[in-house]
Amino acid sequence: MPDSAIGRVDHALEVVQLTDSHLFGEPQGQLLGLDTYDSLQRVIELVLAERSRIDLVLATGDLSQDGSTDSYRYFRQLSERIAAPVRWCPGNHDQRENMHEVARSSGLMNPVLDLGNWRIVLLDSLIPGKVFGRLHAAQLALLDKTLGEAPERHCLVCLHHHPVVIGSRWMDRLGLRNAAALFDILARHAQVRVLLWGHIHQAFDQVRDGLRLLASPSTCVQFEPGSKTFQVSSQAPGYRWLRLYEDGRLDTGVSRITGFEFQVGADIKGY
């Protein structure tokens, strides 16, 4: 069952997506030479400076790089600076049990909530020990049931792994392995407006049969779009904002921190 409607509103919903923060069990941890705690903190400061009201924060996986409970505590502490409900779904670097431990007695890992005229569904595509993802039968059943129970609500569906080809050879091998099963379910439920994910560390925006397909920058290191092999981009960390209207329309965009300088080591071939 979904959470009870959180603050039913008559205005457009203001949603922020934070993804692929890759925090460590110590605040000074670095991914490819970048301090991920510092970059997440700076992105959250940007969110607070730019958005006067936020109704929901979606954290779409790889909150942690090492899967430690401390890394999730750091993420929770930083994200709680934003005065809004927060929801998490796991990515390939996450450790599911430790996420649930830190989220205990909160709604952070609840996969369904109703907000205004929208239903938000977060799916778990993590396969422990693998970089690519898969939605197991229970997740597909949850999605189908949840959508079937609320045909009158517009819906946004989130997961970590990308379910479509993005044009980057190395990354396209690491996406969602059973994307066809996901799209079969979505095709049966016309109220789904948005499919949102992380994992690819870059902005992505397409439309497929009327469904908006969106991915977003990491709050830390970015990957070069269109690259054949692993390649880090010079673009700055950032976040995605979404404005969800009562009639099912949406506006969205990406915002990045400024004054960012980062040089990945020449000997680094992956993350």
Automatic annotation (TrEMBL):
<dbReference type="InterPro" id="IPR029052">
    <property type="entry name" value="Metallo-depent_PP-like"/>
</dbReference>
<feature type="domain" description="Calcineurin-like phosphoesterase">
    <location>
        <begin position="15"/>
        <end position="202"/>
    </location>
</feature>
<dbReference type="Pfam" id="PF00149">
    <property type="entry name" value="Metallophos"/>
</dbReference>
<dbReference type="InterPro" id="IPR026575">
    <property type="entry name" value="GpdQ/CpdA-like"/>
</dbReference>
<dbReference type="InterPro" id="IPR004843">
    <property type="entry name" value="Calcineurin-like_PHP"/>
</dbReference>
<comment type="similarity">
    <text>Belongs to the cyclic nucleotide phosphodiesterase class-III family.</text>
</comment>
<dbReference type="InterPro" id="IPR050884">
    <property type="entry name" value="CNP_phosphodiesterase-III"/>
</dbReference>
<protein>
    <submittedName>
        <fullName>Icc protein</fullName>
    </submittedName>
</protein>
<keyword id="KW-0479">Metal-binding</keyword>
<keyword id="KW-0378">Hydrolase</keyword>
<dbReference type="GO" id="GO:0004112">
    <property type="term" value="F:cyclic-nucleotide phosphodiesterase activity"/>
</dbReference>
<keyword id="KW-0408">Iron</keyword>
<dbReference type="GO" id="GO:0046872">
    <property type="term" value="F:metal ion binding"/>
</dbReference>
